[in-house]
Amino acid sequence: MKKKSFPLANVYGLLEPGPVVLLTTARKGVPNIMTMSWLTMMELEPPLVGCGDNYSFDALKATRECVINIPTAELAKQVVAVGNSSGRKVDKFARTGLTPLEASLVQAPLIAECYANLECKVADTRLVNSYNFFILEVLKAWTDPAVKDPKTLHHRGNGKFMFAGASVKLPSRMK
Amino acid sequence: MKKKSFPLANVYGLLEPGPVVLLTTARKGVPNIMTMSWLTMMELEPPLVGCGDNYSFDALKATRECVINIPTAELAKQVVAVGNSSGRKVDKFARTGLTPLEASLVQAPLIAECYANLECKVADTRLVNSYNFFILEVLKAWTDPAVKDPKTLHHRGNGKFMFAGASVKLPSRMK
Predict the structure, then answer these.
(1) Are strands A116-124 and A4-5 parallel, antiparallel or unpaired?
(2) Is the predicted pLDDT of residue B90 greater than 90, yes or no?
C-alpha cells in the first residue's frame, strides 16, 4: 500500500461518514492503540476533530499527540481485538499483527494497514475534565489513493457493526 | 409508522454509526430543519451529544431545544433539499413534504418520516462561541421498532453519500 499526502481541506470527507477509528499514541517510546467511535468534525480548515470516550486517555493527555487511523472491513478482527484488550500491559501491535510506521510530525505511529492516517496534536483541552473530550487539529493526512469508496466499519453497539454500503452522488450543495 | 419510546441508555447505538441527521427547532412557533453530520456521543447516560456546524444556530441558541431526527435512504431527496435551501425564509416542511409531529418534552417538532427522533435540550454552551459547538442532552427518544438495521445516509462530501450496508455481529466487548 503506497500512501500519499492528502489535502487537509478534504479530511472532513474521511470522518463525516462516521467510521470506527483506531487512535494511536506513543509515550516514552511505548505505542498504544485504542478503538474509538465518538468523534466528529468541528472545523473544516485547519481540520479540527472532537473526540472522547470513557477510556483514560493518559498518553494523549501527557504527549498531546496522536494519530487517527481509519480501518476498513478487512481489519474487523483486529479492530475487535484492540477494543477487547485493555491497553497498558498489552502490546497491541504485537497482539494484532498491525504494523506501526513512523509518522512525519508526531511521535505516535501510523498503522500501515489502515487506508487513511491523520497525524494530530491536541488543540483544546477545555472539555477534558468534564467529558474526557479532546479537540484535535489534524496536521498531516495520508491516504491510499487506490481506495475510493472505503468499506469502513461503523459501530451499532453490543457487538453489532455495520459496513459502509453503496456510495451515491446526489445533487447536494453541502460542502 | 408507529413509534415507541426507546431506552435512553441505548441511544448511542443510533448515533455512533455516524448518520446524517435532520435537526429541527421551533422559534416562536416557526419550525425549521437543518441537515447535520457533525455530531458525536459524549456520554452514555444520560446521553450527551456534541454537535456543530458552520450554520448559525440562532433558533437553537434562543430556545435551547431541538430534535435530532435520523432519516433513512428513502428520504435522501428530502435530506438534500433541506441541505440546499437556506433556512429562514423557506418553510422546509412545506417544501419537502416532511410531516411535523408534536414532541413530548420540547417545542421543536419530530419528523414523522424519520425512523428515530431524539428530543434534546442544550446542556453546555462552553464551546458555542469558539466553535459553534453545542452539547445536548437527550431527554426522550422514539424509534420505529420495525426498523432493525436502518439504511442510514452518511456524508462523504461534495455531493457524495454512502448508504449503510450489511450489519454483522462480532465478538466485541465494547458497550
Answers:
(1) unpaired
(2) no
pLDDT at A88: 67
Over residues B39-87, the pLDDT tens digits come to: 999 999 999 999 998 777 899 999 999 999 999 999 999 999 999 987 6
Q: Give the chain A residue whose CA is nearest to the CA of B167.
A: A162
- Verify whether the Cβ–Cβ distance B84 to A39 is below 8 Å: no
End-to-end CA, chain B:
29
The reply to whether residue B163 touches residue A166, judged by beta carbons under 8 angstroms, is: yes
Comparing CA positions, the residue from A112, A110, A136 lying closest to residue A38 is: A136
Report which secondary-structure segment, H or E, holds B148: none
Cell of B49: 451529544
CB spacing of A83 vs B154 below 8 angstroms? no
Which residue of chain A has the CA closest to B171? A159
ipTM: 0.96
Which residues on B lie below 8 Å from A13 (Cβ)? Answer: 156-158, 160
Q: Do A131 and B37 touch (CB under 8 A)?
A: no
**Mean pLDDT, rounded, for A41-45:** 97
Helix (H, G, I), strand (E, B) or coil at A102: coil
| Region class of B76: left (phi > 0), else alpha (psi between -120 and 50), else beta | alpha
Quick one: closest CA in B to A150, which residue? B162
Task: Judge if the upstream peptide bond of residue B17 is cis by omega within 30 degrees of 0.
Answer: no
* Nearest CB partner across the interface for A162, out of B37, B84, B167: B167
All three cell numbers of B12, joined, read 448511542
Residue with cell 498491525: A98
